[in-house]
Amino acid sequence: MPSTTNEYAKAERELANEQQLQEKIVNEEFKIWKKTVPLLYDFVHTFALDSPSLVFQWLPHYDVSLSDLELRFLMGTNTIVKSENYLKLGSVTLPSTLVENNTSLGIPIPSEDMDTSNFKIANQWKQPSEINKLKVSPSGEFAVGFGADAIIRGFNLKNYDIIDYKYHKQEGNALDWIDDNSFISGSKDSQIALWHVDKPSTPIQLFKGHRGAVNDLSAIKGKTLFGSVSDDSTTQFYDTRSSAVDATPVISVENSHIQNCIQFHPDIETLYATAGKDNVISLYDIRNYKTPFRKFYGHNDTVRQLQWDWSNPNLLVSCGLDKRVLFWNLESLDEEFVYPDSTSNGKDSNSKKKQATKVDPCLKYIHGGHTSRINDFAIHPKVKNVFGSVGNDRLLEIWKPKTLPSEEEEEEEQQEEEEAATEEQADEEMKEPEKEAEKGDQDTEMKD
Predict the structure, then answer these.
(1) pLDDT digit string (tens) for 363-377?
(2) Is-contact 86 374, C-beta < 8 A?
(3) Residue 425 falls inside a structural domain
(4) Which of 42, 155, 198, 325 is surrounded by the fewest CB atoms within 10 Å?
(5) How many domains does the chain have?
(6) 424 in a structural domain
(7) The domain containing residue 76 runs over which residues?
(8) CA-CA distance, 409 to 416, in Å (whole number)?
(9) Quick check: pTM over 0.85?
(10) How far apart are CA 103 and CA 268, in angstroms?
(11) In this structure, how many other beta carbons lie within 10 angstroms of the beta carbon of residue 372?
């Protein structure tokens, strides 16, 4: 018995030491990030919240004056006492130059201290539980939130009325709007429901193809098809025009790993992305849904969210449990890249191993301002390149990546090309002795 107690105490000490080490690493990474802020951002505003928020969504409407731009947003709370949770309507004041000209115009970088002078809460709705998922309607006049009590609540952002949508037996994390009048919901009870905003008593259609929790939903803009991913390791596609009471999927795909998120491209209706517990983002053409045509490697932990940038159709944004928001540029899809998990045979094995250690050329930008997992992020639907994110570190961060003038971009591209040419030349020089040796062997054989 004493030996068991000693082993338990030893294990506790090792666990405590490991946690302390991880905290030190996180703190050092955050210090490095703070030093690079002026180089990486046009601005960053960081606000300390009373409790973590699981959700953050921008509202499309904004007010602009000669000097100021006021943006509005919704966020939640996740308190220890579940009955003291709220959905909050907030606003933040930013430079008006963001809507007049989206290039860098010397917007001041805020200090490292957290400034709350331009951060306000205009209204709040008390909730019986935390909100797991929040989605704002395309018009910005209505929002739906999926509570931990399995009830979906609709919030009228004009008169502040609340409507309850009751059907699901368990809490959920999946919501998406079909249009301003209808939305879909997915729950841990494995069911998907189609709702009309004005008919909260009963869903107008049910979809029961999954055998596990529904993790995310994405509807094709202007179409009747939507996709879903689930803990049953499948990606499924449904048609809302189905006349069946319990509609079955028109397409169902088995995945090797559980996928947490799915997003259709806003302009290309056949293009969609998924990501999940394998830390990988996969791009698909729905006409060839069995195999992704490209994978993105960059996250170090489970990916939880994907979003396409409406202002730049080539940009896909992702976040995960690794505390980072990653930006992926599809313009670099044609650049050579060998997946880190690829195996190769033949003459080019050395070069392929070397290539596999390189950063994915599609990885454009990394936001590393959080010290704990990111719970939600959003791209402003009207103002270009403005982002917001909330995490378990109780931080709300509103930020805009650095915008380089065209001359600086050209210089940067030229520098990258020169570096690539230098690296290629170095590789050729390393191969010269091998070529000379091969030539000598051939000359010897000819003489013989």
Answers:
(1) 999 999 999 999 999
(2) no
(3) no
(4) 198
(5) 1
(6) no
(7) 27-101+115-339+358-403
(8) 11
(9) no
(10) 27
(11) 14
